[in-house]
Structures are given as C-alpha cells and as structure tokens.
Amino acid sequence: MVINKSEFLTSAVKRDQYPEEDLPEVAFIGRSNVGKSSIINSLTNRRGLARVSNTPGRTRLANFFVINDEIYLVDLPGYGYAKVSKKEKENLGKINEEYFSSRANLNKVVLLVDSRHKPNQDDVIMYEYIRHFGIPCLVVGTKLDKLKRNEVKRNEKMIRETLGMIPEDQIILYSSLTRENRDKVLEAVFSDLTIEQEL
C-alpha cells in the first residue's frame, strides 16, 4: 500500500469550516501525549505534515489533510491534557462532539492509546463515545518500540479488556520510530474506503 500524495488542507473549529467535498474520511484521536502527529507523519511518509511538538496538547483544531486526492485524514484535538484550563477542555470537547455528530462522510475513527500503559478513564470514555455514534473504530497502540517482545501480547490483552473490546474489534500495535506494522495499519485504515487508485 502506497500513499503517493498527502497535503494539509484546512483547520476548523465548527461545521461550516469543514471541507465541502464529499470524500471518504478517517479521523485520528487520542490523548494529548500519545504521539498522534508522529503516527500521521510516519504513515504518510511526510515528516512535517502534522505538527509535532515537545509540549502535549498543541492540537487545538480539527486539521484536515488530503490523501492521494481521494481521502480526508482528520487530526482531531487530543484529550486529557491536565495543563489546559477547564474552559479550554470544554471548547476542545465541543470541537470533537460537533465533528462526530455532524460529519456524514466519516467512515472510521482511529483511536490511539499508549501501548505501554493501561488505557485510562478518558480513553475508555472516548472509545465508548465513538461506538455510541456507530462509527467503526480501529484501536492503534503507539510506541511499540518501547515494549519488550514478551510484553506485546500481554499489553494488547490489557488494552482490549480495559476498553471492553469484543473479539471482532481490531487493535494493532505500532511504532512511529521503527514503522513496525506500518503496512498493517495502512491496510486497516484505508483498505475498505471507496477509492479508485491504490493507496
């Protein structure tokens, strides 16, 4: 699977700022320190496509990217960052809620969790929230390179049980650094979207 082209399109905080073209869409969301920008850059082979910061919680908008001129990839604001104000947390929550409740062409959500740790309550709530809207959800455990080989299956089981995933629900552990399982993630994210050319 090859991503030949990836470009930033626009940022939005509300519905009337979303792109109007009706392309299939996949959204990425996760805790503020989960490595969301790094995984987007790694999957698209574009180091600077999504802004990477040493300070968690820098994504404050819904950022839209176009993949191969045929799919929207959306980088949603992260959640759970303790150093933002209560009002700002509410504003970020509203951005995500409006997006999930109004985006008809949203085909899938990729929920990112840190594969090293048990998902926290924010992760569980977000997973249940996505399922509430009936949106297919792929769980990707980031920072696979930080795990020992004998921890991989154990941590995958821990994530499944904590989120309440059923056997049919898919989870893939991935490393943005080594790109281990990159093809698996690309296949799971994009293969069932309606596109004319190969990704």
Structure description:
- The protein has 199 residues and is an alpha/beta fold.
- The protein has a single domain, classed as P-loop containing nucleotide triphosphate hydrolases (Rossmann fold, 3-Layer(aba) Sandwich).
- 30% of the residues lie in helices and 21% in strands.
- The protein has a seven-stranded mixed beta sheet, with helices on both faces.
Short description:
This protein is α/β, with parallel strands linked by helices and 199 residues long. The protein has 5 helices and 7 strands; from the N terminus they run ββαββαβαβαβα. The protein has a single domain (6-190), classed as 3-Layer(aba) Sandwich (Rossmann fold).
Question: Which key features would you list for this structure?
Answer:
about 200 residues; Rossmann fold; globular
